[in-house]
Every structure is written in C-alpha cells, then in structure tokens.
Amino acid sequence: MGAPAGALGTVAVAGTLEPLLGPLTGIVVDAAIFLVVVVAAYVLHKAVIAPLAGRVFDRQGLDEHARRPLQKIVAFVVLFAGVTVAFGAAGYQGFLRSLATIAAAATLAIGFALQDVIKNFVAGVFIYTDKPFRIGDWIEWNGNSGIVEDISLRVTRVRTFDNELLTVPNHALTSDVVKNPVAKKTLRLKFVFGIDYEDDVERATEIIVEEAEQSDAILDDPAPSVRLTELADSYVGLQSRIWIDDPSRADFVKARADYVKAVKQRFDEEDITIPFPQRTVSGRDAWEEPASFGGDA
C-alpha cells in the first residue's frame, strides 16, 4: 500500500532542507552558547564580583564619589572578559582573532592620541586610592591654593580663596608636591612677636600664652607655647605656636587675626613695645621657619 501523498511531500521538503538545517542548527546553538556565557558573566558580576569589590572598597575607606567610577571599571572588565570567553565557547575564534587585531590597532592609535587623558586617568586612580586629599580639604600646590570641590578620574576642581574655580588635571596634582595643611584635622600657626630689648621677656611670654588660652578658636591640647627664636638688631623675637582645630581658610585667617590683635592690645596695656614689623607663618610641623616679613598666609 503506498504512502499518502501528503507524507511523501513532507519527506521531500525535509530532504530538500536537510543541507540547510544542519548549518542553521549550528548557528543557533553557537548563538545560544554565546548568550548563555554572557548572561552567566553578568550574573557572576552581580552576585559575586560586585559585592566582593564593594567589601574591598569598604576596607579601603573609599568615599562614594570614588567608588562609582571604580565600580564601573570593574563592571566593564567583567563584561569584556565574559564577551571574550563567549566568543571562544561559541566557536567564533576566527572572528575573535580579527576583533583582537582591530582592537590592538585601535588601542595603539587611541593611546598615542589620548596620552594626556590616560595620564590623568591613571593619576585620578592614584588620588582615589592614596587619598592625599578629599573633597572639602584645603590644598596648596605649585603656587596655587583652594578648597577641593570635586574629584573625577580626569580632573580635580578647586575653588580658590578669590572664589575662582580651577579645573586642574589630575596629573598636575600627582607629579608635584601637594600640601594638605589640615590633613590631620588640625593646623599649627606660628607668629613671631618682636619686643624691645628693654622689655620683660618673661612677662611678654606670659601674655602671649594667656591670650592663646583665652581664645575659643585655639586648642588647649596641644598647648600653646612660646620660644625665644631671634635676637635681631632692633627686637627680640618670641615665636608663638598655637593649634587650630580642623579650620577652613576663613577660620584660620580670623583666628590668627583675633589672636594677634588681642596680644597687641595687652602689650599696649602693659607698655611692651613692638618696634619692628612682625613676620608670620602658618602650617604643619614641617614648616619650621618664618617665611617673610609681613607674609600673608
């Protein structure tokens, strides 16, 4: 008994498509493998790598502004690795080799064109990890100074004390000396009071210390101190050393001005003479000597 005509037609069509179904099935399987590997890499990142990176960032004490770009970098690296493995697992080695060759050539060309950008990016990573300063810190570098307002992976924005906003390439802040006067939350000020040779050094020293102790802006610990540091032609130099707690630039200037004014008034009341323009210094322990007569901090 012969087969039905419909069945014979189906067999004939299947036989005709068989040479096409084999390669098509292979393409579908390879594409499925590729997608599965990429999705697995994504899940691995979300479930394992991202939380692990978060714990590492927590141990390093990174601020939120520092964590975001680093988290993006980690996600990009994981995705890139996942796509690379997916190409290999799906049997796209030939395409992967071609892609790698194109990527290498593009990387070389981009590297030459973006040397400064890359240099600033690497410097930004060092700023995030080493934390020489943070947002809100007062920093000084290469003759400039101001308050840090924002830190990115390419530039740092600093507001000067003249209210100018400077956009500073990160490389400029890692290739030179950067002072952070309040890195340890306190600032030491030094001011040399000059008195006449005929005046009482011990009494002048007591007045300088007393006025420091009476100031709310000056810390009791470390305690204020006075040293006789100079025997100049026209005056005896008494160097006062005081500490301010976590000051802004405005706090520092006001505290110093109020303190010096109070000492001057006491000197006038007790007939202690200031015969010569005084010189002033501000800074941390490394700044040992006064810089110049009448210098502004």
UniProtKB/TrEMBL annotation:
InterPro entries: LSM_dom_sf, MS_channel_C, MscS_archaea/bacteria_type, MscS_beta-dom_sf, MscS_channel_2nd, MscS_channel_C_sf, MscS_channel_CS, MscS_channel_TM-2. It holds the Pfam family MS_channel_3rd. Coiled coil: none annotated. One of its GO terms (molecular function) is mechanosensitive monoatomic ion channel activity. Keywords: Cell membrane, Membrane, Transmembrane, Transmembrane helix. Belongs to the MscS (TC 1.A.23) family. It is a multi-pass membrane protein. It is found in: Cell membrane. Residues 190-274 form the Mechanosensitive ion channel MscS C-terminal domain. Residues 116-181 form the Mechanosensitive ion channel MscS domain. One of its GO terms (cellular component) is plasma membrane. Gene3D superfamilies: 1.10.287.1260, 2.30.30.60, 3.30.70.100. This is Mechanosensitive ion channel protein. It comes from Halorubrum salipaludis. The chain crosses the membrane at residues 20-44, 73-92.
